[in-house]
Amino acid sequence: MKRDVFMANEYPQVMTIAGSDSDGSAGMQADLHTFFTRKVYGISVMTACVAGNSYGIHASISLPLDFINQEFADIAADFKVKAAKTGMLADSSLIKNVVQNYKEYDFGPLVVDPVIMTKHGNMLLEESAFETLRELLVPLATVITPNFYESEKLADMKINNDDDLVTAAHKLQQMGAKNVVAKGYHQDSNQTEVRDFVLLESGKSFWLSAPYHHTTHINGTGDSLSACIAAEIAKGTDIEQAIRIAKNYVNTAIWNEIAVGHKFGPINHWAPKSE
Ligand SMILES: Nc1ncnc2c1ncn2[C@@H]1O[C@H](COP(=O)(O)OP(=O)(O)O)[C@@H](O)[C@H]1O
Ligand SMILES: Cc1ncc(COP(=O)(O)OP(=O)(O)O)c(N)n1
Q1: Which ligand number lies closest to the CA of residue 225?
Q2: Which atom from ligand 2 is nearest to the alpha carbon of 21?
Q3: Given ligand 1 and candidates 85, 192, 218, which is best to mutate, with the most ligand atoms within 8 Å of its CB?
Q4: Domain Pyridoxamine kinase/Phosphomethylpyrimidine kinase spans what residues (predicted)?
Q5: Which domains does the chain have, with CATH numbers?
Q6: Is 23 touching ligand 2 by the criterion CB < 6 Å?
Q7: Quick check: CB of 119 below 6 Å from ligand 1?
Q8: Percent share of the chain, pLDDT over 70
Q9: Exposed site from 9, 153, 190, 251, fewest CB < 10 Å?
Q10: Which residues are bridge partners to 255 per DSSP?
Q11: What ipTM goes with this model?
């Protein structure tokens, strides 16, 4: 029988630094589904765990910092990570720990998904940690991907219209994030379109729009978008193209629902064509 031997550079190694979500729809599980279908090798530093299902999140714990240090050290000692992303970091001490480890080792460009609150209202980051996120993690971001609520919190302003979202994106860039994907509002059942504002390091900016899909199956959209951007960066795709690919990837996954869970379900990571 012929055995295929894959060279290391055929499967770029990508790392998620995130929380586990037991229902598989979001968090680290969504990141790893995305890495798998985008044909990159997924490595994970688990920071926290939430217990939940499609009805909601019911408990949450953070892992010990010593254990997280060991995860980073073991990965750095053996793997060549080409890009990474962050997800749920729970509190200030965890953010500081991740920042310290990221500075100590070479894990490539970092996509920061500044997870603060799920779209169903569960807080995944303590309010006292917002300043640490702004000061320490945002400046490390090659790309930052806040949702509407996270842009309001990080930029410390109310967002009422497109102009406000643009202002918030510029504020995040002034805080040190190189490239910003500021995701637009999508909780209005009358809306027909979703719009994300992209501000690149070069100063170029544009809107990414797509039709609004009326569905309860949109858990993990933000995780999957940021994971796909990280996967593309690891493959060598330029930032603008990585963002465009990720938007199409998530859009296709939203529009091809799978019947999993009884209430708020996952997106379909199998639906987009993998490259
Ligand atoms: N109902 C929907 N229809 C179409 N696109 C959506 C829908 N919900 C989210 N998206 C898209 O999914 C991506 C992730 O955004 P969002 O859900 O705001 O992130 P988060 O999961 O961090 O809250 C964005 O590009 C957004 O436009
Ligand atoms: C452990 C964990 N991390 C992150 C999330 C939220 O994921 P995200 O994709 O940012 O938001 P939703 O689309 O799920 O609201 C989570 N639920 N669990």
Answers
A1: 1
A2: 1
A3: 218
A4: 21-268
A5: 13-255 (3.40.1190.20)
A6: no
A7: yes
A8: 96
A9: 190
A10: none
A11: 0.96
